[in-house]
Design a protein that fits this description.
It is a single chain. With about 280 residues, this protein is α+β, with helices and mostly antiparallel strands. It is built from four helices and 20 strands. The longest helix is centred in the N-terminal third of the chain and has 26 residues, at about 1-25. The chain starts with a helix and ends with a strand. Keywords: Membrane, Transmembrane, Transmembrane helix.
Length: about 280
């Protein structure tokens, strides 16, 4: 009889222990409840889509959102979900970096996923999008934006050519990169085959619009391998090119000002063929 009572008591203790564990796991924890703005040197956020990175100037505001984040059990099934992710990168005073992705119903901290409380995570996502849509966001361009050319309702990626680019390091110093490339007429293997279009125009779409399109020129594909061949002018209105009839290699050169510490000039190549 005593043995039976002992077994019942042990079972009750185990059940109570399990209940306590479940209770506290459901309560979650706040990994950033003690985070202070003074601990952070700089912060930025990458929104995907549209694949844009923004410098966060008001770090205190970001910290207030992070203070409210609640995580529950570890769960890496976030890789099976589709949707917009916003990744905050914090550079701390000790030189370390941490990445925090708000991806409802998950928070991903340095690559490890956790189920999260919906409202604080959604607030983080909304905060990032409000920064992007504010019209005053400082877009971080650590390298030249990509260019797609749209014609016949199809987007074709252009090849990045020569560029000169500046970016700002964490310590505030400027870093410049100059990259050279062969002449477009020496890139036949890279650019072929041509994209064939029945339209007479094509639209330039950059992931971040340049401040100025410096020039657009082209060469007939009859001049492959002849970099000394004279180029032809191309008519451009806004971001819309008027295409030449036949096969042509186009070079677009654009400029982004460096007022915010990021920018420079870059050229892009694409091979298009307009049907007769």
């Amino acid at each position: 009889m005593r043995k039976k009572r002992l077994m019942i008591a042990i079972a009750c203790i185990i059940l109570v222990g399990i209940a306590v564990i479940v209770f506290f796991s459901q309560q979650g924890k706040k990994p950033y409840k003690d985070l202070d703005a003074a601990q952070i040197v700089s912060a930025k956020v990458l929104l995907t889509p549209p694949d844009k990175t923004i410098e966060i100037e008001n770090i205190q505001e970001l910290v207030e959102y992070l203070n409210d984040v609640v995580v529950y059990n570890e769960d890496n099934s976030y890789t099976e979900y589709a949707g917009q992710g916003v990744v905050f990168t914090l550079t701390m005073v000790d030189g370390t970096q941490t990445d925090i992705m708000a991806y409802n119903p998950f928070i991903v901290i340095d690559g490890i996923g956790y189920k999260t409380k919906y409202e604080p995570c959604e607030a983080l996502n909304n905060y990032a999008n409000e920064l992007l849509n504010s019209g005053t966001a400082n877009i971080i361009l650590e390298e030249p934006p990509t260019l797609s050319v749209v014609s016949d309702e199809t987007a074709i990626g252009a090849v990045l050519g020569t560029y000169s680019w500046q970016k700002t390091n964490i310590d505030g110093t400027a870093e410049s990169t100059i990259a050279d490339s062969p002449h477009p007429l020496e890139c036949k293997d890279l650019l072929s085959p041509p994209f064939e279009t029945t339209e007479t125009t094509a639209t330039l779409r950059f992931t971040e619009d340049p401040d100025t399109i410096l020039s657009v020129q082209c060469w007939s594909d009859e001049h492959w391998g002849e970099p000394a061949a004279n180029s032809e002018d191309v008519t451009i209105v806004g971001n819309v090119l008027t295409l030449k009839l036949g096969g042509y290699i186009y070079e677009v050169t654009a400029e982004w000002n460096t007022e915010n510490g990021y920018g420079g000039t870059a050229s892009y190549f694409i091979y298009l063929k307009t049907a007769d």
